[in-house]
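Predict both folds.
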Amino acid sequence: MVDLTFTPHIEILSTEDVPRRRHWSDADKIRLVEESYRGHRQVSATARRHGISRGLLTVWRRQYRNGELSLESGASFVPVKVAPDLDSQPPREPVPAVQLEIVLKSGRRLLVPSSVEPDALARLLPVLEGK
């Protein structure tokens, strides 16, 4: 009689065995994108040649077209337009007085000019409502 004993084979996977994610500089991305634009149907061939996915290269191509990839550092110049000095502008015409209508809880209506000071109005309203 044959004695068959089962001894399982165990394989231990370590994170050290897995290649880490690569980080591509903007200069490398631009070089690969420009290479992919040379010739007909070069996206897949360029991606295969450099070991990246075709989708990633397509994303880089879109970023390249939109100007999101650049060889420059993060600092850049932005055009600025200086507004004229406020003191040198001609005075504005005064806004015509507008009346505001405030309806109190008691049903009374109060008409006040729009130029009334908010603090004065805040002191007046409780008196008018009888609080």
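Second protein follows, with its predicted structure tokens after the sequence.
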Amino acid sequence: MNPLIHSLHPYPFQKLAELIEGLTPNPAKPLIKLTIGEPQHEAPAVVVDTLANSLNGISKYPSTKGELPLRRAISDWAQRRFSLDNLNPDTEILPVSGTREALFAITQTLVGEKQNALVISPNPFYQIYEGAGILAGADLFFLPCGSDTQYKVDYSLVDDATWARCEVLFVCSPNNPSGTITTLDDYAYLIDKAHTHNFTIVADECYSEIYFGEQAPLGLLEACQRLGHTDYKQCLIFQSLSKRSNLPGLRSGFVAGDAAILTPFLLYRTYQGCAMPIHHQEASVAAWNDEAHVIKNREIYTRKFDSVLEILSPIMPISKPEAGFYLWPELIMTDEDFCTALYQEESVLVLPGSYLGREVDGKNPGSHHVRMALVAEESECVEAAKRIRDFLSRR
């Protein structure tokens, strides 16, 4: 067995299950889970209908590269969304079966050229970043983004010796769990470092279409366009239909950017055997071509956040994120104590923030936080907020 398997940490939801094992939620109240970021809104009818009408695609082997109509739909969407002059559907786009597997696979593709290679990640982080780095044989370097830095990474604190060891830099923008957005100045700094020290910026942008107000979050390729790096050298974005279109079960997304990286990545994926089924591709074309359901989705999230924050703001320090569908409040009590007591007293389950981070220099930036995913229907989210308010009022 690969000995690196034993270096993987338990997944956050496994740790949560162990934390509450043997505990009983308040039987007088139905359990409300705010733990997993799985959208519960209705899937767009145009996608469901297309999927149902394209099931004859199961009789064909899908191409790892994806069919041209899907790559063109992705290219058209990305050019509209990020104001790009061009995104070549033949060389600069690869459809993927959900970004989770693609984030893992790109790390295996990119790591190995440098000795003592590093994968650099924000902290807290989406756990795939760490697991992918471990199984690629790289060391992990975590950049804190806690309350003391307004949940943003200060990249200027990384010295050139560290950048020189880096092969993959994960950027999550909008960030999971805090919802902060990487700025153009940050991207300009990072692109310069990537070109100087030969590493790849891997931008996880899966929450980019859930935002509040008129200003859409900046994307990495959009930053490249503005900064004149129109070849997207050493820059990749990872996008998904899971959050944008409420389609987590479709397992559909894409990677786009540097063609010189996507060529060997396609070779890796051909051997890995992870091509998207034809009927999923056709449904994905319908999703990327339709923006009406995305606008409706944002309106629903805006109402939910406004309703929940109206209830919770008077009793705890909490604010609307820049984007995404998580609340990430800081607590006085420990995150595990908050989670277990809330579960037992109010039948509301949240995720301890320390499970999403790692302790570095004696501090875990996720500690004393919990992640609340506002993915359920508005009435259920409001009910959960009322219970949390009552829980805190007793303290």
